[in-house]
Amino acid sequence: MNHRSSGLKLSDAVEGFLQFKMAEGRSPRTIVGYRHDLREWLAYAGDKKVETVDAQELRAFLNYLRTDYKPRRFSAELPSLSPKTIRNFWVTLSAFFTWLKEEFDHPSPMENVPAPRFAKPEVEPFQQEEIRALLKACEFKREAQTDFRRRFTMRRATAQRDQAIILMLLDTGLRSSELCALNMGDVDLKSGKVVVRHGPTGGAKGGKGRIVYLGKSAHRSVWRYTVTREDKGDESAPLFTAGNRHLTRDSLRQLIAHLGEAAQVKKCHPHRFRHTFAIAYLRAGGDLFTLQRLLGHSSLDMVQHYARVAQVDIEQAHRRASPADNWRL
Length: 329
Known about the structure:
Layout lengths: L9 H14 L4 H18 L9 H13 L4 E2 L2 E2 L5 H22 L23 H12 L19 H14 L3 H6 L11 E4 L13 E4 L2 H12 L13 E2 L2 E2 L2 H15 L6 H14 L4 H8 L5 H21 L1 H4 L3
């Protein structure tokens, strides 16, 4: 039976919503996203009574996100929000007011707030030469110049770790959160099998675990990285570390961006390796359903998007290579 929401403050409703979603078993990452978006909404709207919120105010908030909101990460000010991020705010608010409707029979003003539109970014896989440049950038720091000696380069202390990261991302299509959550015991260095653990500790979207595999090159690179580790026998030890802790998603993003800058590879971010794996898999003759399982997608929608990109590539390659056309028959 629903309870009346008269007099309920937004701040109390937000905490109740978050508690409900945690009880539902939503991942910590999802809860963090909800909390962030709703705190920004509270800062904009003020801690008013729930029943005073209307669709006009919600539309004004979304417009504020497009025009005046200044996002920050750490101490740096970032450019304006992307259309997809604004859409994510809409999704959060829609979930919040849907919960209020179900829990308190409170009419949802979001029913009169259309979802912001956004164009999906074009999928651009890495080229082979770009991957080779990134692997090379893992090895050495930038050339140093001094007044008293010749120019020189120093080997990076994390070279083996970073090469293993690149090849594992490329060979498995793992998400950032999944790679960062891996422990030593999750990788079978005999078979190359990698276990993405169930639940929030495994980093999988929706908490769904699965098994992926390393090819020979990635397998060899991960072995080289781990064989000299003092904790290589500890199955609970983080696989990829920053200090003695798991590498974080932000640290991974910064690392890949740094390597991209050093290698002069544009648009270098972890998720692009996932795109590259998927498209390369399809180009090599892999099927959609197996790819869906390897990527951990709940539906074929995104996999079919990769298939369309791969098919365009095949069509263009055929136009360039057609013997009948090239031989002018």
